[in-house]
Amino acid sequence: MTELDPVIHAQARLRVTATLAALDDGDRMTFPRLQELLGMTAGNLSTHLRKLEDASYVAITKTHQRRTPVTFVELTRTGRRAFEDYTAALQALLDPAADPSEVPS
């Protein structure tokens, strides 16, 4: 049986990862925009981003625009691959008749 990545599988982290995966490779999003899109509190989002960052799935960049601090979040290549593997594993679970050789590894 295919195992789902426990880092991504938590509902909030899956939502974060799916949102960031919708961006083009190398694109990033500001923390407030991600928070707004997901309807999460800053503390809750920070906690889940920390777990994803610990797994090297997201990169957090803190910088300034003029004198205002800005935090950017982006999905790393490792994170993008983990999300692709997660969605393939989920598809395999949902469609057990699918040929496992067609599921990317």
Fold topology:
Layout: H1 6-9, H2 11-21, E1 29-30, H3 31-38, H4 42-54, E2 58-65, E3 68-75, H5 77-94
Antiparallel strand pairs: 1-3, 2-3
Q: How far apart lie the N and C ends? A: 14 Å
Provide the structure class.
alpha+beta
Roughly how many Å is the radius of gyration?
Answer: 15 Å
Whole-number mean pLDDT: 92
Q: Quick one: biggest sheet?
A: 3 strands, antiparallel
Task: Tell me what portion of residues adopts beta-strand conformation.
Answer: 15-25%
Describe the structure.
- This protein is of the alpha+beta class.
- The chain has five helices and three strands; from the N terminus they run ααβααββα.
- The protein has helices at 6-9, 11-21, 31-38, 42-54, 77-94; strands at 29-30, 58-65, 68-75.
- It has a three-stranded antiparallel beta sheet.
- Strand 2 and strand 3 (68-75) form a beta hairpin.
- The longest helix has 18 residues, at 77-94.
- The protein is elongated.
- The model has no long low-confidence stretch (mean pLDDT 92).
Question: Any key phrases for this structure?
Answer:
105 residues, alpha+beta, three-stranded antiparallel sheet, 3 strands, elongated
